[in-house]
Design brief:
ATP binding; alpha/beta; about 575 residues; 4-stranded antiparallel β-sheet; disordered C terminus; 17 strands; disordered N terminus
Length: about 575
């Protein structure tokens, strides 16, 4: 065997850029025509080809933007998923396009943790220094820091209102400047970045050869405007030299501030190191942001595959428009404005009705579909509870068939969630369960002595509630329906009123034999009791107008309190 030799530096750089060798890669010449190498332990993958990670196979499949297909979800550690997501650039109000992405990924994280028992360690960056923040601060004549803190707090409140679980930690860019500078220095040491005379630092795309373009392809890369000293038009800024009236920090290249992409690479690496399980964001961030993150991290860590799975959510479009909802297009609806007309549950159901990576149309029709689905579930819940209380009389149910239907639904839901978190299939499975339950809850006029099966309906309700609780939909509407009086006083008053009305209505409906009436005549209430029936109907209609719905089922009645809509909502 030929001895290990030192390869000339130009050749090593060329080989490293093409095959993702680390700087301490050993090359061994085994024959005049054969060269073998041993890459460093942290290096995985060659070129643009995705390498299936080694580790714990969850049994789930997820669509990976790196391969453009579903892949088995394999985590580095059993029961733990490291997850990084790009947070907001806090220069303005968050809008529904943002909300849609954050809610969809919140749903996926809930599924991973609450269905499949995976501990999701989620880190999110807050971009609190950026060209847009600086411009907006100048317009408002306030400091960029004050502007960013104001909109950061509003963003967090919006997420709370949407029931989005917070990450393990929010990390601000401005509080990680030393780490960002050190990260840039590491990329320069590895000869994948260079500084200009003006004090800018650029990533050298040519230094990584054809490994650039894992998400979108190198042919889709377009240069960003910048210094004329760039070696390649595609090179992008890691550090920007300071300009008048801009915040700046000290660095080896002079005063300046970070480029956009470097913040995420640095912060993700500072928490998770050289390997990341899952990276998420809107599809509009795939290029150039996520593409450049990948290039930076793999150049710094000298590895061929930094992030194993990239998940991207589809755009939110206004109905009839091909354009995404965006601040730059001035076609957005703020989260706060939206929640004045619709509930959090309705928006979350709206998101559940489409796959997370699909585009979604925002319209009254699509939101009404979400509202209608929730109303159907709520109506079934009240009917099933009325049946369980003995207030709703039905024919004998096919209990065995219902238990089988429930077991089948449970299996279908798990299969759908394991298949790229297919929430539309889950909702369809639940609505089918509700449909079959409703078929057995048809009221009959006269009670019979058929056997009753309340337990199976209790199982239906418990399971449906559990599924939607996992997905972040609170069918109990604790906050919304009971905000008037959390002690339950309102419900007790309604219960007493409905019971009194039922007693009056039962008396009014009672029949008695009338003198002179033929024996075959149909019994009917006495004419003197008709005003009582009319009063009962009037009360039912009046209560419905304020959100209390009473349903008469033969001689019995049930009631429910529905969430009142904000004023003006019906005009939408």
């Amino acid at each position: 065997m030929w001895p290990c030799i030192t390869v000339f530096r130009p050749l090593l750089l060329k080989l490293r850029s093409r095959y993702a060798f680390s700087k301490d890669t050993q090359l061994t010449l085994v024959s005049p025509s054969k060269l073998i190498f041993r890459p460093s332990a942290s290096c995985t993958g060659v070129g643009k080809k995705w390498t299936r990670p080694t580790g714990y196979d969850t049994g789930l499949k997820t669509y990976n933007s790196l391969t453009k297909q579903k892949e088995p979800l394999v985590l580095a550690q059993e029961g733990i998923a490291t997850w990084y997501s790009c947070g907001p650039t806090v220069y303005d109000h968050a809008h529904l396009g943002h909300a849609c992405s954050y809610v969809r990924f919140d749903i996926i994280q809930r599924i991973l943790s609450r269905v499949f028992g995976i501990n999701v360690i989620h880190v999110m960056v807050i971009t609190d220094i950026d060209d847009k923040i600086i411009r907006r601060a100048l317009e408002k004549s306030i400091s960029p820091t004050i502007l960013a803190r104001m909109y950061e707090e509003e963003f967090k409140n919006d997420m709370l209102a949407l029931k989005v679980l917070p990450p393990a930690v929010y990390l601000r860019v401005t509080e990680n400047i030393p780490q960002i500078v050190a990260f840039i220095e590491g990329i320069i040491r590895n000869e994948h970045a260079y500084a200009t005379k003006q004090g800018d630092v650029y990533f050298d795309i040519g230094s990584i050869g054809d490994r650039y373009g894992k998400l979108m392809g190198a042919g889709d890369a377009a240069g960003e405007p910048g210094d004329t000293e760039k070696r390649d038009s595609r090179d992008f800024a890691l550090w920007k030299a300071s300009k008048p009236q801009e915040p700046s920090w000290e660095s080896p290249w002079g005063k300046g501030r970070p480029g956009w992409h470097i913040e995420c690479s640095t912060i993700a690496s500072s928490v998770f190191g050289s390997q990341l399980d899952i990276h998420s964001g809107g599809v509009d961030l795939a290029f150039p942001h996520h593409e450049n993150e990948i290039a930076q991290c793999e150049a710094y860590h000298q590895c061929g595959q930094w992030g194993n799975y990239f998940l991207h959510s589809g755009h939110l479009h206004l109905k009839g428009s091909a354009e995404k909802m965006s601040k730059s297009l001035n076609n957005y609806i703020t989260i706060k404005d939206f929640l004045e007309s619709y509930s959090t549950n309705e928006f979350r159901m709206f998101c559940l009705l489409t796959k997370y990576r699909s585009a979604i149309d925002y319209s009254d029709a699509s939101l009404n579909e979400a509202r209608s689905s929730l109303a159907t579930i709520t109506a079934f819940t009240h009917d099933a509870q009325a049946y369980m209380r003995g207030q709703l009389q039905c024919q004998a149910v096919q209990e065995g068939a219902l238990w089988e239907r429930l077991a089948e639904t449970k299996a279908n839901v798990v299969r759908a969630l394991a298949d790229d978190f297919d929430t539309p299939r889950v909702v369809n499975a639940i609505m089918s369960l509700v449909y079959h339950g409703n078929r057995h809850l048809q009221p009959i006029a006269k009670p019979d002595r058929s056997p009753r099966s309340p337990a199976v309906f209790g199982a239906f309700l418990t399971y449906i509630r559990e599924v939607f609780e996992v997905l972040g939909v609170d069918l109990l509407d604790r906050k919304e329906a009971h905000s008037v009086d959390s002690s339950g006083t309102l419900e007790n008053v309604v219960e007493q009123l409905a019971r009194f009305r039922s007693d009056v209505r039962a008396f009014a409906l009672s029949v008695e034999d009338m003198p002179g009436e033929p024996a075959h005549a149909s019994p009917r209430p006495h004419s003197e009791k008709l005003p009582l029936l009319k009063a009962c109907d009037t009360l039912r209609k009046d209560l419905a107008s304020i959100g209390v719905h009473i349903r008469d089922r033969g001689p019995n009645s049930t009631w429910e309190i529905l969430q009142r809509r904000p004023a003006g909502q019906d005009k939408k």
